[in-house]
Automatic annotation (TrEMBL):
Residues 504-756 form the ZP domain. SMART domains: C8, ZP. Keywords: Disulfide bond, Signal. It comes from the Eukaryota. This is Alpha-tectorin-like. It comes from Fundulus heteroclitus (Killifish). Gene3D superfamilies: Zona pellucida, ZP-C domain (2.60.40.4100), Zona pellucida, ZP-N domain (2.60.40.3210).
């Protein structure tokens, strides 16, 4: 309280007044003050231009969070500080001035600050502490309190007393007062004990303007809505901000996001093929800033390029580029973040997936696939990304032609988005435009080939013929040409990592067919390939360009035959190794194994009833022995024994040999050989091997050797069985003696008319038979 114009009566024993004219510090430990919930034992008094200030945590101005009381400046420019012992009259005066105080003074000492009026620092009981000194300790924020004159009235003992209220900045509240503001949800109460309390919305709440508080997040969603959207691109697929989905099917670049309110900003995605030409995948993301000046490229492998310069990011700590892009890298990928006007855009890329996180005001205009995936891809395709060659049609010397180049540029762009710039493809569009100008305007575009590096015109792949599954293309840019596999044809082989068709297996033969265009893709010359026998090489079909390698019972080409439990395995290898005397090679060696595996139970096998058939023949004056014997090799070193198994389609060599004939005079001619399913040589079911001394032209496996040349001859055939029948096969041969002198005993085959041999008048044909059992 302040008592204007009077000095209070005090008891004897006063330590005396301390007059001061400058800032001073006083010990008030004998009358400690509790102010804003803190107890102070020292007072600091300042003189300012307008006020005298009493603070309790340091001089005013030195600590901004100090607790202070502002009072009027004394006219004399000085003040006095005095300490007195407790006197009853002072307690009476105070209670008269502040009726709400109903407790007793509990301090034995009173501290007085005298100017024109007197400021008394007096401590009462707990309920009245806040009443005597400014009681705002319950405020959320500690405030400076200014004392202001309220009213003057005649107090007890005839002294004039001025009562002061405690004022927060800008308002005055009397005890037992309540103030509320529904617009701000603020409520203030100054109770009868002069205890000031306030309430309002919490730090995570917002006022609705009707006295109600709601969570801040809900309030912002209703009254301050903002964009907070994510767009995802992975593989060829894109999911936009609203959940719409689309797929990119070419190798172009597309605008993912642009902001009309920020015209120099754009996020661009580029796509490229991977394992298949018909499916494109996200390959990189570019942020375009400041028009054409800044390009931030996010590449696979965590690489970041600003324009064409590689930027090194060694830690997850953000690096801020001068263009305003914040770049960071961690084990998951690279992130580029930029703040533009009211927007924040964050782009994450891990080499396969990109996610664009957009934050900004609701209702803002957006553009790009991330805004609307259902838009036409052609509208958002960036033509300059496919090939700069297409846009050359806008420049000199093409600009000298007044024919609109845009249709050609569009056709060029769309094509090069879907197909790589190979086989002179870019030049084809430039050539077509130049020729159109010449035909329609009689205009020659001088120097365009030099500028575009397109060669002079000549028919592409002139005089080179490719098969239906091939096309003609360049080995190198502007270089030689060859036949390449068409993508669909090649895909079935590349998916299985092969160079041709599966092995075709027969009983004693096998073949493997390779695609020459696939061999050339691997840099392999088919002419250098061979089986284990270097003489067995591939045969190329001139129409299909397929190369076939094969072996059979007649020529095994080094094939190894192995037994593995109940399996018989025929194995060979195609390679380009061997046959060269050079100690070095500059080509990769090729090894292609192929084999046929048969289960022995599945193989139809025959055995000969007798390893050889011997028959004694008497023909006229000649007596001789005729032997019929079978072998499994052309050299006739491996005879077929009674325990030898012979498979279907296996080549068998049969020798017919006589003993007892004069070879200088006579020769033996095998007139015919045939097979029956019965022992009788006249069975109705018959298959001819030799007819009229010659191999049956209907069976290409039959070969006859030495017939009519001497006292022995031989033939070979591939083993067979009668269709739909099982059982033994009986092989019969009829032979005739021929006198050599003056006669040609050798049959004339291959279409020539055979001269008939002159038989001995006493001779008769000899018949010999061999039995094969199954």
């Amino acid at each position: 309280s302040v008592f204007p114009g009077v000095r209070l009566p005090v008891s004897s024993g006063s330590p005396g007044a301390q007059r001061f004219t400058a800032s001073s510090e006083f010990d008030i430990s004998s009358c400690p003050i509790t102010f804003y919930g803190r107890t102070h034992q020292r007072a600091y008094v300042n003189f300012t231009r307008q006020n005298l200030v009493v603070c309790f945590s340091g001089f005013y101005g030195s600590r901004t969070d100090g607790d202070c009381i502002f009072g009027p400046l004394p006219d004399s420019g000085s003040a006095e500080f005095e300490q007195y012992q407790r006197i009853p009259v002072l307690e009476t005066i105070v209670k008269y001035s502040v009726p709400s105080i109903d407790t007793r003074m509990d301090s034995p000492t009173v501290c007085l600050l005298s100017l024109q009026s007197t400021l008394a620092l007096i401590k009462f009981g707990p309920r009245s502490t806040d009443a005597w000194l400014p009681g705002h300790q319950r405020l959320q924020t500690r405030r400076l309190v200014q004392l202001s004159v309220g009213q003057d009235r005649l107090g007890p003992l005839g002294l004039w007393v001025r009562t002061f209220w405690f004022l927060p900045p800008g308002a005055v509240y009397k005890p037992a007062t309540e103030v509320s503001s529904p617009e701000t949800c603020f409520r203030l109460t100054c109770d009868k004990d002069v205890v000031l309390t306030t309430s309002s919305c919490g730090p995570l709440e917002r006022c609705l303007g009707n006295g109600s508080c709601i969570p801040a997040a809900l309030y912002d969603a209703i009254f301050n809505p903002k964009l907070d959207e994510v767009c995802t691109v992975t593989g060829p697929a894109l999911v936009d901000f609203r959940g719409g989905v689309t797929s990119v099917r070419d190798r172009c670049s597309y605008s993912l996001l642009s902001l009309p309110s920020v015209p120099d900003f754009q996020v661009v995605a580029s796509f490229q093929e991977r394992r298949r030409k018909d499916v494109s995948f996200l390959d990189g993301v570019t942020l375009r800033l400041g028009g054409p000046s800044v390009r931030v490229h996010l590449k696979q492998g965590g690489r970041v390029l600003v324009n064409d310069a590689t930027l090194t990011l060694n830690s997850p700590d953000p690096l801020v580029h001068p263009a305003g892009v914040e770049l960071s890298k961690d084990l998951t990928g690279v992130t580029a973040k930029v703040s533009l006007s009211n927007f924040t855009v964050s782009v994450f890329f891990d080499g396969y997936t990109a996610q664009i996180h957009l934050q900004g005001p609701v209702g803002s205009a957006l553009h790009g696939l991330c805004d609307n995936a259902s838009r036409s891809l052609a509208d958002l395709r960036l033509p300059e990304s496919s090939s700069t060659s297409c846009n050359l049609l806008k420049e000199a010397p093409f600009s000298a032609c007044d024919i609109n180049p845009e249709p050609y540029i569009t056709a060029c762009t769309r094509t090069l988005c879907s197909y790589p710039d190979q086989d002179g493809l870019k030049c084809q569009f430039l050539e077509a435009y130049a020729r159109t100008c010449r035909l329609k305007r009689n205009a020659t575009l001088v120097g365009w080939r030099t500028k575009t590096e397109c060669s002079h015109p000549e028919a592409f792949c002139q005089d080179r013929t490719c098969s239906d599954h091939e096309f003609c293309g360049e080995k190198t840019v502007g270089g030689d040409t060859r036949c390449f596999c068409r993508a669909i044809f090649a895909s079935k082989y590349r998916d299985s990592n092969t160079l041709g068709d599966p092995t075709v297996c027969n009983q004693t033969s096998a073949s493997l067919t390779l695609a020459n265009c696939l061999l050339e893709d691997e840099g392999v010359d088919y002419a250098a390939l061979h089986l284990k026998d270097l003489t067995c090489r591939g045969r190329m079909d001139e129409e299909t360009h397929m190369v076939t390698f094969s072996f059979n019972g007649t020529n095994r080409c080094g094939t190894e035959v192995m037994n593995n439990n109940n399996q018989i395995i025929y194995q060979n290898t195609i390679s380009n190794h061997g046959g060269s005397s050079s100690v070095i090679t500059r080509r990769d060696q090729v090894f292609i194994d192929f084999s046929c595996v048969y289960s022995q139970e599945a193989i139809k096998a025959f055995k000969i009833r007798s390893s050889s058939v011997i028959k004694v023949i008497t023909s006229g004056v000649w007596n001789y022995t005729l032997t019929m014997k079978a072998y499994t090799d052309a050299a006739r070193t491996q005879p077929v024994e009674s325990d030898t198994q012979v498979g279907l389609d296996q080549t068998i060599w049969v020798e017919l040999k006589t003993d007892g004939l004069d070879g200088d005079l006579l020769s033996i001619v095998t007139e015919s050989c045939w097979a029956t399913n019965q022992e009788s040589d006249n069975s109705s079911l018959r298959y001819d091997l030799i007819k009229n001394g010659c191999a049956n032209p209907a069976d290409p496996t039959v070969r006859v050797e030495g017939n009519g040349e001497g006292t022995s001859n031989r033939f070979s055939f591939n083993m067979f069985q009668f269709s739909g029948r099982s059982g033994n096969i009986y092989m019969h041969c009829k032979l005739q003696l021929c006198v050599k002198e003056g006669n040609s005993c050798i049959p004339k085959c291959n279409g020539a008319r055979r001269r008939r041999s002159i038989r001995s008048r006493t001779g008769s044909p000899a018949l010999i038979s061999m039995v094969w059992t199954d």
